Amino acid sequence: MPIMGPSTPAAGDLARLRQHNERVVLAAVRASGTPRVAQIVADSGLGRTAVEDVLATLVARRWLVEERAAIRGRGRPARSYRFRAEAGCAVGLDIGAYSVRAVLTDLAGRVLATTRRPVSPQTRRRDRLAAADRALADCTRDAGVPERRVWAVGAGTTGLVDRAGRVVRANAIPDWAGADLAGHLGRDGRLVLVDNDSQLAALAEQRRGVATEAADLVLLHAGRRTGLALVLDGRLRRGAYGAAADLSALPGLSWEPAIEYLHAVAPADVPVADRAERAFAAARDGDRRARTAVRRYARAMALAAATAIAVVDPRMLVLGGAFSQAADVLLEPLGAELARLCPQVPELRASTLGADCVALGAACLALDAVDERLLAADRGPLPALTARSV
Amino acid sequence: MPIMGPSTPAAGDLARLRQHNERVVLAAVRASGTPRVAQIVADSGLGRTAVEDVLATLVARRWLVEERAAIRGRGRPARSYRFRAEAGCAVGLDIGAYSVRAVLTDLAGRVLATTRRPVSPQTRRRDRLAAADRALADCTRDAGVPERRVWAVGAGTTGLVDRAGRVVRANAIPDWAGADLAGHLGRDGRLVLVDNDSQLAALAEQRRGVATEAADLVLLHAGRRTGLALVLDGRLRRGAYGAAADLSALPGLSWEPAIEYLHAVAPADVPVADRAERAFAAARDGDRRARTAVRRYARAMALAAATAIAVVDPRMLVLGGAFSQAADVLLEPLGAELARLCPQVPELRASTLGADCVALGAACLALDAVDERLLAADRGPLPALTARSV
């Protein structure tokens, strides 16, 4: 049965087809490094003529670079194509109570620079925002890229953030509620995305951490602060009112003060900021009181995590935050408690992304936004690349 | 800047474009009833020639019916097109402890027949399956459609169902665990989808109940059994291991025995099956003991619902199950408790779908599967319609 009628497709339809093919070819090249034409034809499912044609356009518009390599024993060099990931950059910021961190990546997500600036909970709002600006500027300087090549900025911060990128609530920083992060960071027209820090840590784990093969995960943030965040179907789950995974009003959890179990076993002269680490070290050395304290702490954290697990049934629970570095003494009691509390215990892993995890998640958010703007279908033909294409 | 190169698209690309256009036109017609060509052109974004051509094909393949109506004062009748929803049917089954219900719909989801057959928890597995077969047959007979026009069957049942459509666990029916529902209902090659009954009730609320404008909802099933189910982003959230919204192992909830508060206030000679209804009636009449019992019941249910709400932050909480008919006395204390327990209280509504809600959700699931098979992109050209096209 013939599947085509006798008609000729209209010009508008062909333009749409063409734009679709541009995205398909670009995605095929990005997915496989530096593929040759035959590979792109195979991966895209398009005809060779169409692929050659789109490739020429994408090279002319500076999205792709053509590379030629002589194949041994043959006269003609093989042509392959590379996505020009250096055409633009994204910056991820982590604006916290004690530090501002920045990560700069190219469009492929490769980290080109990281910086950190210390602040304190008492740092005034204006100065914290200025620290963020300087962290961003430090990154571009260290990476040797002009600031205008930063196409998008993602920012994570403690507390609740609204859809407009303003901080609604932030218990850890006195004058932070009301800060207009999107307004400040996007003041020269740059694309800015703002989100809660635990949520961005969860996104980072799913995109480039220990949870890349899990579409659904719960992140348990364990550190000076505690928190939960959800990634479902590969996307951050923020909730209808931005309050997803906020268990603060549920009775019987009492996980937020649980850090006191750890603080109580360290000698009185150890500063508060170091006590938890000391408790973990003592537990590691077999100290009985410290091991009991870690077990109590784990029990309280497990109850909160189990609540989220029972509701969404994720494939993985990731232990994040500073205490993920004590995974060797924390994971075992955490897993034992979860086995008691969950009909299905998800796989349990500790983050390995370290202190930059929130900034990395913020960069992922910024890169997603760039992709969405530039590479999604129904956005018209891909533009010619200049220094600022977003 | 010209967006087209000088090349001619390959035949394969044109076939794909054609298939895409077929779906777009079919979706445009389905979305707007009986549109004229100009409307379809506007809604689809395609050119008129392409639309005319695809319409002719879809009429020839019996997906669409062309209708001509004379416009007053003009000579030429206006052509409009209607989706032939009567071409196929879907059946939704609710296989429960006390009854088997069936709903038969056309491809547009219009209900053509409903039936109910009584069973009991002690009914043997073989007989319960036979009751499901008879309920389905009764429906087709009542609607006057041949059984072969049933393209897909959805089935909801109590307990945990695995991906293969087998019952894994069913506390409410002694010999039900192990029942191969998909195998039994699909034995003559029919498309069969099986899911948990509370989940299908949630789907029904989102598609055709009180939650059609909410992409995210939590359903609180209140009745002889209790349960929770999630719809997120318009889709059932089953969880990575099929255990989403299963709070049975969390401590401190004790919502499952809460129905005893209601049972305790009815006179001793009232049969158990009628006691809750009697308690609600007494509360409605202002009886103080009954009102206290309803409040206690609502408090226990609210704690379970609040747990799910705190985790996923849905737009709406729907009170479903048989007790949704007591919404006039239940909603107020439920809402008051939720306000205490949730940082963000979602909108609270009672189901109005009645006893057929699970069967309706099952029919929705079956219709989704038909759409997915026939109408999704990348499935090749739409087939010519015969009695059995799935």
Automatic annotation (TrEMBL), chains A, B:
InterPro entries xrefs: ATPase_NBD, ROK, WH-like_DNA-bd_sf, WH_DNA-bd_sf
Q: Which stretches are annotated as coiled coil?
A: none
Highest rank taxon of the organism: Bacteria
Q: Which CDD domains match?
A: ASKHA_ATPase_ROK (cd23763)
Query: Which family is this protein grouped under?
Result: Belongs to the ROK (NagC/XylR) family.
List the protein's name. Transcriptional regulator
